[in-house]
Write a structure and sequence with these properties.
six-stranded mixed beta sheet, eight-stranded mixed beta sheet, binds ligand BES, binds zinc ion
């Protein structure tokens, strides 16, 4: 898909569909639109005065122009109240436009850039292009009938029209970062949506390698033997039931050069299938556990975006990949594992495997020089019970670092909500015979899981994101489809960006 900024009179824009966003409490046409409407004999003014279209958020009305202007169709699109317009409104509006264009088999879509908004032009451009690219996403690679394959978006060109030529470069900058972010989120969605017989640790490594080559990320991979040398007993325990070999990917984006004091470490949980292991999960919904590598996907997506946008920060990623399977060689409840940093863990439930993998990954990220950390994981069903699917759970040991991330999430339509970390929760994961146990009971399950990971963090700012409820959806928003959402790619990217801007 190709996008371009134009500065045309609306009636001169050649497109299959021209999108006009209108506010519920401000349906007045701008002088340039009145000019266009005159050419159409006042069709739009008529519709508005008859209240056939009210401008409610998400409302659409398609009009045939009958050749009186260059565009073949007009799409009136409700933006809701003017004062409540956010980036999320624009992201949704752009996705809605893409979907209408898809239904009408349009090749060229033109979007009028809204004039009065309470955000930077860069933010406008970014939100719109994110919406366009996220809204075009589909996962149809395994559909073999033509009918479903025809659902693929037909849009080839998106024109963003703005009468004003001033600050066009700000808009262009936003569109470019929106494109990078949209594509990175879609890549993360693909990784999650692939079936677990395809997306195993080796396939994930192959895709990461291809991406690293294209984006200039530095990449290394630890194999089983390397993990043994590093005494990563926790991930080795989890992988022991699977015939598919594990992997740990290390990626580096050195955007700030050697002098920078900070290295941000992003750590992702990559269980390519979580059966629960010997503590086997019930059958219903087990297929969704192919998505138990969504944290890994988010970290890879964010790294791709940071590299492509040449963000001036040093960022290190550690992605732990394996399968959690029951078998004669699987780890058992009762086993004691020793992590890379020497801490011992009593396994009381093999389904609490994510925290084990993350323990070694977090230790390794620090060993490699990370000075502040964010881990991302589909960690607990308890987080889904606590927050549902509308917010990602956050646990942190540093208020400032946490707030940076929460603000970044809010700015990009990915709400993240803090959970408390009082000392009592940490008591719940003390073992009688080892340093830690891997479950802390049903109470506060999302928090005890996070604090398990915290005990592998050595006095550094750290944030844990539990995306169990937000990474996979059955009730998609307009810019999503069922399955992987690619959540946290945008939040991670913007957190890194905000962090370097603060300093
Ligand atoms: N991968 C699951 C958590 C999960 C649940 C992700 C729902 C996505 C949707 C994790 O490994 C797990 O099984 N956690 C257990 C922990 C329990 C045994 C302490 C859980 O949440 O039930
Ligand atoms: Zn599990
Ligand atoms: Zn899991």
């Amino acid at each position: 898909m190709f996008s371009q900024i134009i500065h045309e009179k609306p009636e001169n824009i050649s497109a299959d569909i021209l999108v006009l966003g209108l506010h519920e409490n401000d349906l007045e046409l701008t002088p340039e639109l009145q000019e266009m409407d005159k050419k159409m004999n006042g069709l739009i003014a008529g519709i508005l005065s008859e209240a056939f279209f009210k401008g409610k958020e998400g409302e659409t009305e398609i009009l045939l122009t009958g050749g009186q202007i260059n565009a073949k169709r007009l799409l009136l699109l409700g933006l809701g109240k003017q004062e409540s317009l956010t980036g999320e409104t624009l992201r949704k509006a752009a996705a809605t436009s893409m979907q209408s264009a898809g239904k009408l088999k349009a090749a060229t879509l033109a979007v009028m850039i809204p004039g009065k908004v309470q955000m930077t032009l860069e933010e406008v451009g970014r939100s719109l292009n994110e919406g366009v690219i996220l809204g075009a996403y589909q996962f149809l690679g395994y559909k073999t009938d033509d009918e479903t394959r025809e659902k693929q978006s037909t849009v080839q060109t998106v024109l963003f029209n703005r009468a004003e030529t001033m600050s066009a470069d700000e808009l262009a900058k936003g569109l470019e970062s929106g494109r990078i972010l949209g594509e990175s989120v879609n890549m993360a969605r693909d990784l999650v949506n692939e079936p677990p017989n395809v997306m195993d640790p080796q396939e994930f490594v192959r895709r990461a390698r291809e991406l690293a080559q294209h984006t200039g990320l530095e990449m290394k991979v630890l194999e089983r033997e390397d993990m043994e040398k590093m005494k990563m007993g926790c991930i080795l325990g989890v992988t022991s039931g699977s015939v598919r070999p594990p992997a740990m990917i290390v990626l580096r984006h050195n955007g700030a050069g050697d002098e920078a004091e900070d290295t941000i470490g992003l750590v992702g949980k990559g269980i390519t299938f979580d059966s629960g292991g010997i503590s086997l999960k019930p059958g219903e919904g087990m297929d969704e556990m192919k998505g138990d590598m969504a944290g890994a996907a988010a970290v890879l997506g964010a790294m791709a975006a940071l590299a492509r946008a040449k963000v001036q920060a040093n960022v290190l990623a550690v992605i732990g990949l394996c399968e959690n399977m029951p078998s004669g060689t699987a780890y058992r409840p009762g086993d004691i594992l020793t992590s890379m940093n020497g801490k011992t863990v009593e396994v009381l439930n093999t389904d609490a495997e994510g925290r084990l993998v993350l323990a070694d990954c977090v230790a390794y990220a620090q060993h490699l020089g990370a000075t502040r950390l964010i881990d991302v994981a589909t960690l607990t069903g308890a987080c889904v019970i606590a927050l549902g699917s509308h917010a990602t759970g956050v646990v942190s040991n540093d208020d400032g670092w946490q707030q940076t991330l929460i603000d970044a999430g809010n700015a990009t339509g990915e709400p993240c909500w803090p959970l408390p970390a009082f000392d009592g929760y940490a008591e719940q994961i003390k073992s009688d015979i080892a340093d830690l146990k891997n479950i802390g009971g049903r109470e506060g399950g999302a928090i005890t899981a996070a604090l398990f990971i915290r005990s592998f963090v050595e006095d550094k700012p750290w944030i844990h994101l539990d995306i169990a409820g937000t990474s996979y959806t059955k009730k998609p928003k307009v810019y999503q489809v069922k399955g992987g959402t690619g959540v946290a790619v945008r939040t991670l990217y913007r957190t890194v960006q905000a962090w370097i801007e603060k300093k």
